[in-house]
Amino acid sequence: MEAYTPTNAQKYLWLADTIQRGGRMTFDEINERWLSNQTLSGGNEILKRTFHKWIKQVKKMLGVEIECERRGGYHYFIKDEGELENGGMARWLLESASVQSVLLESLPLRSRILLETVPSGESHLTTVLGAMRHNHPLTIAFQSFWHEHPYTFVIHPYALKMFKQRWYLLGYSPDYDMVRIYGLDRILEVVPHADEQFKLPSDFDAATFFRDYYGVCLSDCKAQLVRLRVSADQAPYLRTLPLHTSQKEVETTDDYSIFTYWLSPEFDFVQALLAMGEDVEVLSPANLRQTMARHAQALAELYSKV
């Protein structure tokens, strides 16, 4: 097996993650952690000038500032952990880098570690991100699940979102004069218009746009209060991995819990509820309860056939 060569970005992520997890750390403590990671360090210590260069790059790349407290022995710490605690891209990158580092150290166990297969789509990420950085329109050849032949169109790339192991591109379609979303794994070809630029709306914010959605299915259905009765067996899974950022547990008993959400009860959310089967009951709103009842009836009829 060829020797693994870590990228600079992986080193910067490692440094931010190490200090964030370790709290206030001296340079020697950080170096000790670095040396213990043979995959990244290769047994070589971090030089002081290299270390300070990494600190600058962490701030530039992640927006995370590492400061030094000189009192009591020069301890390094994260100045403001808000960027790492809000579930944003910096946090995701750090967690991904941490997992990757552990897996690389565990390559001898690869036959005993089973991972999920992720659909293709990453091959277009570099092109799409480049267009997003410079506000270049994209011409996309897209193969829908629902059409026999691919079709080509222009889109202004606004944002990317990952959902259930798939990347999705949100953008404005001049042809439809509306914002639409497309799975990257269904894109056959993507070509940037390097000589053109679109203007991103000044009030656009990706997190705000998706705030009222569980997944990526855009819907005209307005956000509303959803109340679920969840079995005692299922409730711990929702507590540890909430369905949505608005989730609140408002009642807890020995037999069930009541969870509330403020969101648009669109297709993806309905699918998530169906996946929990009889362990979840929609209490309100009435229209969502009726939707679930129709699905339950269809399933009952399907399985009643001999």
What layout of secondary structure does this protein have?
Layout: H1 8-22, E1 25-26, H2 27-36, H3 38-41, H4 48-62, E2 66-69, E3 75-78, H5 82-85, H6 89-105, H7 125-134, E4 138-142, E5 151-163, E6 166-173, E7 178-183, E8 187-192, H8 206-210, E9 224-231, H9 235-240, E10 248-252, E11 256-263, H10 267-275, E12 280-284, H11 286-304
Antiparallel strand pairs: 1-3, 2-3, 4-5, 4-8, 5-6, 6-7, 9-11, 9-12, 10-11
Explained architecture:
The chain is an alpha+beta fold and 306 residues long. The chain folds into 3 domains: 8-112, Arc Repressor Mutant, subunit A (Orthogonal Bundle), CATH 1.10.10; 122-204, SH3 type barrels (Roll), CATH 2.30.30; 224-304, 2-Layer Sandwich (Alpha-Beta Plaits). The chain has helices at residues 8-22, 27-36, 38-41, 48-62, 82-85, 89-105, 125-134, 206-210, 235-240, 267-275, 286-304, and strands at 25-26, 66-69, 75-78, 138-142, 151-163, 166-173, 178-183, 187-192, 224-231, 248-252, 256-263, 280-284. The strands form 3 sheets. The chain has a 5-stranded antiparallel β-sheet with strand order 7-6-5-4-8, covered by helices on one side. It has a 4-stranded antiparallel β-sheet with strand order 10-11-9-12. It has a 3-stranded antiparallel β-sheet with strand order 1-3-2. The longest helix is centred in the last third of the chain and has 19 residues, at 286-304.
Pattern of helices and strands:
HEHHHEEHHHEEEEEHEHEEHEH
The level 1 CATH classification of the largest domain is Mainly Alpha
- CATH topology (fold) name of the largest domain: Arc Repressor Mutant, subunit A
Strand order, main sheet: write it out.
7-6-5-4-8
Work out the count of structural domains. Answer: 3
Distance between the termini: 55 Å
Q: Please give the CATH architecture of the largest domain.
A: Orthogonal Bundle
The beta-strand count equals 12
Oligomeric state of the chains present here: single chain
